[in-house]
Amino acid sequence: VSEKVCPRCVPQLVYDGIPRGDLEQRELRLSVLSEEGFWENILLGEVGIRLRDLDLAQEKMGWFALGSRGHGTL
Fold this sequence. Notes:
Blueprint: H1 20-23, E1 27-34, E2 42-50
């Protein structure tokens, strides 16, 4: 998420003390919610990003397509 789009969002992934082999088997799941309702947030979509597909030594910036719950894994 760009700070220009959402100034409250600062994209940062911090990992420490987790063996690299464990990280490569994990997935980062991001959910985007709407703040429209007074009592509940509405799910706009989500995406799963497999950490094994990323070079964790390099910063990764980009756009990911949101899918419905349970879909959209990259």
